[in-house]
Amino acid sequence: MEIYKDKSYPVEERVKNLLSLMTVEEKLAQMHIRQDYKDIEKSIRKGKMDFGGIYGSPRISVKKQLSRMRAFQKYAVEKTRLGIPLLFYGEGIHGFNQDTTVFPQCIGMASSFNPALIEEVAAEIGKEAASFGVNQLFAPNLDLAREPRWGRVQETYGEDPYLVSEMTSAYVKGLQSQNVAATVKHYLAHGSPENGLNLSTVHMGEREIRELSLPAFEKCIRSGAMALMPAYHDLDGVPMHANKKWMVEVLRKELNFGGVTVSDWGGVSFLKNLCGAAKDGLEAGKLAIAAEVDIEAPDAVGYGEEFKAAVERGEVSEKALDRAVERILTLKFRLGLFDRDWKCGTKGLNTARSLRLAKKAAEQSVVLLKNDGALPFKNTMKIAVVGPAAKNVQLGGYCRYPEDLSRLVSVYDGISAVAGKENVFYGAGCGYFKGTDEQLCDALEACEKADAVVVACGDKGNFYGGVGWGDEEQTDTTVSCGEGFDVHDLRLPECQRKLVSAVKATGKKVILILATGRPSVIIDEYEKADAVLQTWYLGFKGGEVIGEILFGKTNPTGKLAVSFPRSNGHLPCYYNYGINCKGALYRSYGSEEKPGRSYVFDKPDAFLPFGFGLGYVPVEYKSVKTVKEGENTVRVTVTLKNAGDRDTEESVLVFLRSKSREGVVPYVKELKAFTRTKIKAGKEKRVNLYLDEESFTYIGADLKKKVGKGDYTVFVNGLSADFTL
User: Fold this and answer.
1) CA atoms of 454 and 603, how far apart (whole Å)
2) What residue spans define the domains of the chain?
3) Which of 208, 192, 215, 275 is nearest to 240 (CA)?
């Protein structure tokens, strides 16, 4: 009896029934994702469907892609023996990666400190993916941005484990509210690769991993994440795709994750041809199945014909396949693929609502790093807009360049819309990585006509799947920020630094716009500029938002989710280090004029720390008080005052320091609570935030969770309060 086709039965029974009907070949098909549409068509013409899911390609037109998706699904449901529907996959880091709405890149949205916004954005991404016919997205990214040279910093929600946990769990809830499965990645500790090079070894001790990297995965699993992707790298020499300790003992048993694990692209084959951890594809497959990697993508190197033969010989237990396929089928049933008509199309994409939300997210992503009174501009001012990012819009990795280019708003466009084109003058100044004397002269001529100069600098992050989208105004198609595009130098390229210096020499007010996917070393440019805006990659509405911020129509409210180092030699650079670090013994910070001991010629602190951000509306922090409300609960009451003449929003961040921990070194401070609140002009407001048992929990020397007792200090924007737990 085909119970699996009857939706009146519980999912568990339907899965069990279907699994009992499947051959080894049919089971292995479910454990494979394919990507190449031409190869898929060849397989179908031969009457063979050796895959259970398809990853969509943004390199062909939407029309062609939808047509093929319909044909593939029709074949799977109507022509195969068991009629198991396909699962379609895509990317969704900051928008579903087809011709859909591109939201700000994650590192920018993290600056909002607004999980409710992230949940709303993720729900919109889910709506667009579901409309297109895609059921699972490879998002969110839970990596900590602890290595700024790494090109994938842009995909993260910053350097802090608590912030990342709150933002990504909100993303999971929002995406899955639209019946689209979230795939949390990259498990585990992927954001600190050696030398900042993608895929490189990660050096972190187990206690550090459990305290910093594991919590976000734990929270997302508690929030119902349906799928997970292991990372490419190794920990202590063991690749994650073969790491039974972390993939089975911790993930499956400790965290009780029952969802599907999907290999990173080529992750199983990398066990053989990159890591050298397996001598051939069969051995790679055996390692992966032992680590309970359920699905291999995109080529059947590990779970291929040799693996099938090994199962039939009894070398690999068929029960291991059943375990994986049971989880895959459960996901397909949970998503309703067996019980509702599957449709795909373009209805519901790029709606007015999604574009409004993209603009709102962009507004909350911008961080004002400096303002010596140069901003906001007066409406009567004439503005020169120069630099490589003035007219070139960077969207960031894992999105598709829109078929309708009118959706892209550049910095030049956004300023012109507010000031009027007759009041805006343009000169390229230079490209991203090189420039000519002619370009520089054009920029300086524009400066002569203006009251102030906006210098739009940055890196190039328009990249997807191995193909850089070159700068329309340059022949150089170099990409400098994205997956596999890591850098050894965090300074702006020399031609951009030269442009800032030349503009400064004109005597005009200099406003530096940074359109980057990672923190930069900008200490020299910061000193030369009168105002600095960190805008990240702002998506479709970025230029519009920048124009409105520059002219004061919008108040910048973002705060840094990642620290900015003073130099390349100041790495690693993050705020939550151990209290015995950063020259704690000497604290005799040096300079070239007066050498010291930590460092001899500089101080080890960040140039711009996590949580830093200015605004046009002054918000005064009047007081912070703590009240114990139970054995392990503390209420933190912060009194704020909007000292300006317009309403604003403020992100209140509560940091906690334990003065001692049994047997382990505590951090100088840790973010343990935050909220984004509205404050009316001229009014005071009290905000209550709560620290609970989880806030005081740490990983002890025995690798077990402990609730720390003793003396604590909370820090809130320069204020502090002590209490004893």
Assistant:
1) 31
2) 357-550, 617-725
3) 275
Predicted confidence (pLDDT) per residue in 283-317, tens digit: 999 999 999 999 999 989 999 999 999 999 999 99
CATH topology of domain 357-550: Rossmann fold (3.40.50)
Domain range 617-725, CATH architecture = Sandwich (2.60)
Please measure the distance between the N-terminal and C-terminal CA atoms of the chain and give it in whole angstroms. Answer: 61
Radius of gyration of the chain (CA): 26
List the structure tokens of 516: 């980057």
Give the span between the Cα atoms of 360 and 112, in whole angstroms: 10
Residue 593 neighbours by CB distance under 10 Å: 6
Are the C-beta atoms of residues 124 and 357 closer than 8 Å to each other?
Answer: yes
- DSSP per-residue codes, 164-178: HHHHHHHHHHHHHTT
User: Residue 188, preceding bond cis, omega within 30 degrees?
Assistant: yes
pLDDT of residue 471: 46
What residues does 688 pair with on adjacent strands?
637
pTM of the model: 0.97
Q: Where are the beta strands (DSSP E) in 416-572?
A: 424-427, 452-458, 463-464, 467-468, 509-515, 531-534
d(CA 699, CA 339) in angstroms, rounded, equals: 45
Lowest mean pLDDT among 4-13, 332-341, 470-479, 540-549: 470-479
Report which DSSP code applies to 350.
S
Asked whether the beta carbons of 293 and 287 are under 8 A apart, the reply is no
Going by pLDDT thresholds of 50, 70 and 90, the confidence category of residue 162 is very high
